[in-house]
């Protein structure tokens, strides 16, 4: 970042601009820099990295104070980062932050998470990026125990940056006595009982998305899922280069013989 | 797969169930097994791994022939795989396939791609999975030069499987003289000029998503982007474990001193 300027921090979320989590995040981060928020005008949970391609996206300013502007946007979380970068911010942000999400984004949920869609979008554009999530879906969830960790992790990333193509997925357990921070691996597991029938008239082919995440390695204390279950903040460094390098040679052998 | 049964192949796409690409794919794959298609009822480009969480999802049967059933679904591509697995298929599919997409899903586009959202969803559930895409957005794109590669790659994956947590991102150049197949890395690059203004009345804060992908390493012949630009089918093995293992130790050191 330039010496004479406060760090520019671009924030979004997937619960919508009025959610408690993003407004707590704004409070915690205001002392650290100039804040620009562009967030969806309503809830967009489960957006992943989705973009809006079939209709135009619109934004409007809804709040302005010294070193803080807040915009509401009709698009997805990833749209918000793309649009803010190309319209309302005058320079490359020093940091992109998603959250604080109302709900767990550990394990394989990273793929479905709009919060992590924000961090991935920042990271793909070379900006140090973090997604913060609390394991509590309630609209009035208690975020206060996260504050000190959010401040310190954000300050660390502002000072030291992150490696190329790496962002952070930070998840908080829903407890008041947090034991500390653990650097974690993405847990291996699957969603089960994913659909809840909600028949309409005589049609039983309507379903609500539902289900529960089952950790397939509950005893593996390296995973984010384990850390959360045991009272730690889970910090999972997350790579946006998805290449499976370890399979390239074998795949090459297979395709050379088959094609 | 069980010996007495034909392989069960679950197919979806993000261009919608009536798109040419998915109907060509169905034709190519019918000789290989029993086909179940559940695809969005209209275009869902740029869906990534997005899920529908704020309203129920519905499906209906629209076509039935020997060893082929086609369902239209109101959800996203990833919803389609989740819903089909839990409703209309009676056993775990032997293969999940997304495509053939009308448009390029190489490089960082893997994150935004509904086609790859399908493959990632299959892979997260332990099913060998592939996304096929052609570098041509036209509704009447010519897919016929892809057929032989799709058949062979699908057959190879049916026979030999894929490693745990790895799926394939297969992209075809839009040419009739394909030079062959290359196993690739995900290209490093960024989208530029991403928004096209579309003012409405006196409001200039409306934008269409647009832009172009700029390859930051155009001379790197290991990338999928290079392969496509040079006439090869790009086969990029894709990992759904996003953990940045190479950064864990340093992150641990940083967090131990800061927190």
Query: Distance between the terminal alpha carbons of chain A, to the nearest Å?
Result: 50 Å
The tally of helices of chain A reads 6
Q: What is the CA-atom radius of gyration of chain A, in angstroms?
A: 19 Å
Largest sheet of chain A: 9 strands, mixed
Q: Report mean pLDDT of chain A, rounded to a whole number.
A: 95
Beta-strand percent range of chain A = 25-35%
Q: Tell me the strand order in the biggest sheet of chain A.
A: 3-4-2-1-5-6-7-13-8
Shape of chain A: globular
Helix and strand run of chain A: EHEEEHEHEHEEEEEEHEH
Q: What portion of residues of chain A is helical?
A: 10-25%
- Could you tell me which chain pair has the largest interface and how many residues each side has? A-B, 82 and 81 residues
Poorly predicted spans of chain A: none
Task: Please give a structural write-up.
The structure is a homodimer of 259-residue chains. Chain A is an alpha/beta fold and 259 residues long. Helices cover 24% and strands 29% of the residues of chain A. The first copy, chain A, has six helices and 13 strands. In chain A, the strands form three sheets. Chain A has a nine-stranded mixed sheet, with helices on both faces. A two-stranded antiparallel sheet of chain A has the order 9-12. A two-stranded antiparallel ribbon of chain A has the order 10-11. In chain A, helix 1 (20-29) links the parallel strand 1 and strand 2 (34-40). Chains A and B meet through strand 3, helix 2, helix 3, helix 4 and strand 8 of A and strand 3, helix 2, helix 3, helix 4 and strand 8 of B.
């Amino acid at each position: 970042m330039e010496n004479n300027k406060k760090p520019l921090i671009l924030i979004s979320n997937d619960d919508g601009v009025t959610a408690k989590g993003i407004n707590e995040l704004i409070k915690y981060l205001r002392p650290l820099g100039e804040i620009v928020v562009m967030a969806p005008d309503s809830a967009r949970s489960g957006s992943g990295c989705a973009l809006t391609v079939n209709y135009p996206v619109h934004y409007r300013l809804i709040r302005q104070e010294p070193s803080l502007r807040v915009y509401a946007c009709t698009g997805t979380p990833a749209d918000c980062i793309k649009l803010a970068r190309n319209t309302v911010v005058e320079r490359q942000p020093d940091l992109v932050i998603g959250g604080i999400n109302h709900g767990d984004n550990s394990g394989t949920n990273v793929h479905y998470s709009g919060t992590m869609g924000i961090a991935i979008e920042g990271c793909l554009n070379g900006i140090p990026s973090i997604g913060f999530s609390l394991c509590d879906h309630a609209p009035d969830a208690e975020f206060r125990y996260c504050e000190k960790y959010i401040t310190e992790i954000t300050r660390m990333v502002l000072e030291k940056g992150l490696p190329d193509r790496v962002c952070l997925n930070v998840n908080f357990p829903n407890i008041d006595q947090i034991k500390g921070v653990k650097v974690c691996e993405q847990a291996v597991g699957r969603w089960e009982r994913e659909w809840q029938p909600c028949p309409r008239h005589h049609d039983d082919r309507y379903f609500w998305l539902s289900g529960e995440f089952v950790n397939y390695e509950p005893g593996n204390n390296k995973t984010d899922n384990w850390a959360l279950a045991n009272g730690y903040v889970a910090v999972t460094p997350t790579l946006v280069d998805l290449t499976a390098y370890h399979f390239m040679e074998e795949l090459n052998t297979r395709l050379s013989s088959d094609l």
